[in-house]
Amino acid sequence: MSILEIKNFSFYYANKNDASLEDINLSLAKSSVTALIGPSGCGKSTLLRSINRICDITQGNRYKGEIIFKGKNILSKNTNLIKLRSKIGMIFQAPTPFNMSIRDNVLYGLKIKGIKNKAELNVILESSLKKANLWKEVKDRLDSDATKLSGGQAQRLCIARAIALSPEILLFDEPTSALDPISTAAIEELILELKQKYCVLIVTHNMSQAKRIADVTAFMYLGKLIEAGNSKDIFNRPKTKLLSDYVGGKIG
């Protein structure tokens, strides 16, 4: 069942007349992982950031089309961006723990929302760290500096911080590109666990990673969505020459 529908979506950077993303159509299903693949600069991260409107940070960026979430077009000027970003969480390429304790990192968004009940916060803290497979490693040092965590731990902390806000969709922008193979395997395993509860959309340059964890793979090229479908079909039976060339290493 679809949880988010991208319909005829185009994106324009400020002061540019040509679209960076053109006429994108894509559905995201509940309890699934969708991977965006394609060469550098093809628009994967721009699409990801448009979905929770981080691109709005730069004044003058423009959208066309619709992104429908829970029956509403989130591109509407009336969209509450704070609420939207709590429901559509974002995990970036480089781990981004805030310069504060592990505890305060996880609870940061909740405190901004005005939640002050310590018992409630402690329950969410433990639950979020457990869902991110980090609780056992940090439960005895929750008040220590989060910036001292290893790369893999820091990325899982960022996932816990997103989970704490009770999202429905999790967006991952190349979450393992800066990690070692062991940490990468741990994050991939975690994503497979998270998909049982959340819709996951991941940008990756690693086609092997997409094969391992994605139910659906979407191939982008020069700002356009060329082909999307079941991951096995995308990699084994591409319908377009562009995708065939990309999978075969002829372009990229």
Describe the overall structure.
This protein has a six-stranded mixed sheet, sandwiched between helices. Strands 2-1-4-5 form a four-stranded antiparallel sheet, covered by helices on one side. Strand 9 and strand 10 (224-230) form a beta hairpin. It has ten helices and ten strands. The radius of gyration is 18 Å and the shape is globular. It has helices at residues 44-51, 81-87, 102-112, 118-131, 135-138, 151-163, 181-194, 207-213, 231-236, 241-247; strands at 2-12, 21-29, 33-37, 62-69, 72-73, 88-91, 169-173, 199-203, 216-221, 224-230. 40% of the residues are buried. Helix 3 (102-112) packs parallel to helix 6 and helix 4 crosses helix 6 (151-163). The protein has a single domain, classed as P-loop containing nucleotide triphosphate hydrolases (Rossmann fold, 3-Layer(aba) Sandwich), CATH 3.40.50.300. The longest helix has 14 residues, at 118-131. It is an alpha/beta fold. It comes from Campylobacter magnus. Residues 4-247 form the ABC transporter domain. This is Phosphate ABC transporter ATP-binding protein PstB. GO terms for molecular function: ATP binding. Keywords: ATP-binding, Nucleotide-binding, Phosphate transport, Transport.
